[in-house]
């Protein structure tokens, strides 16, 4: 599962990516510094891992991860090929969710591709280009589906109906995700490759002074996010880059405290991206390791077991599951068993975020 960082040039995307991944992606003060996407794996902070380790001592603790893709800046006219737009739009189609970085700071030494700082207009530019790209995609797909429908293809008929409804939204200048879609339609939209169906998290890149409370620029973005039923977080990308370079944990905490924040914006972003992708976590715990495993919300126990290995799903017998709350009360797995707090769940069980599991399988 991938989350792609998008936005206009020079809004701080690569600076943020560098801080997130320590991958050394090039960051410079000119448009199209990033042409090919940079990819990094980001750990998702989760205090539950340490809480489990308190009661089950282990040699290794392994958190969940999210794949972050740094995509080059889009500009006005990208859907028509401006600024290598078609290539960059193709990169966006390959991610599962969008982290839309919006410039919410003034700095005369950092040029703005539009010559001014206006976060809502920046968002409008990106949204317009993505909507235009989707319109072009839909217009290509509909004639092909119509041909299949004339041949009696029932699946094509359903997909045609879906894309026709999506096209109506796009013609109104609305993203496809703004529609009211049922579960079956969601599956079809995922297959369609439409960019504006992907969930969006607005990342307000503020200066250091706005890292804790934001500023008048970020307030506009937050209001828009509420209106769209989207999500929004504050980050000072330059500050986060400086903090990420510190190896000493106490120094990092001192820097955060000086700005009035308790944790890095990167930690909040990693968790937000994880949630945006519709992901949840279950844990396995033993002497060798405690590990967070990622599964899509709504997965069954066999499907979740398959995240570890396909043999676990194919030969699934049952899952033994208990909660962190019960572990903290009873202290050990032996005590949990004695109290009847370890449940046996079968193939129909829908996994819950935070389940601690042992899987039994036979192949």
Can you describe what's shown?
The protein has 363 residues and is of the alpha/beta class. The protein is built from 14 helices and twelve strands. It has helices at residues 13-21, 47-55, 85-93, 119-150, 154-171, 183-192, 216-228, 237-244, 249-259, 265-276, 301-308, 310-314, 324-330, 333-338; strands at residues 2-6, 38-43, 61-62, 65-70, 97-103, 200-205, 231-235, 279-285, 290-296, 316-322, 343-345, 356-361. The strands form three sheets. A six-stranded mixed sheet has the order 2-4-1-5-6-7, with helices on both faces. A three-stranded mixed sheet has the order 3-9-8, sandwiched between helices. Helix 1 (13-21) packs parallel to helix 8 (237-244) and helix 4 (119-150) packs antiparallel against helix 5. The longest helix is centred in the middle third of the chain and has 32 residues, at 119-150. The protein starts with a strand and ends with a strand. Residues 23-27 have low confidence and may be disordered.
Rg is 23 Å
Assembly state (oligomeric): single chain
- The SSE order reads EHEHEEHEHHHEHEHHHEEHHEHHEE
Low-confidence stretches: 23-27
The proportion of residues forming helix, as a percent range, comes to 40-55%
What global shape is seen? flat
Largest sheet: 6 strands, mixed
Number of helical segments with 4 or more residues:
14
What portion of the residues fall into strands of 2 or more residues? 15-25%
Distance between the termini: 28 Å
Structural class: alpha/beta
The total count of strands amounts to: 12
Mean pLDDT: 87
Strands across the major sheet, in which order?
A: 2-4-1-5-6-7
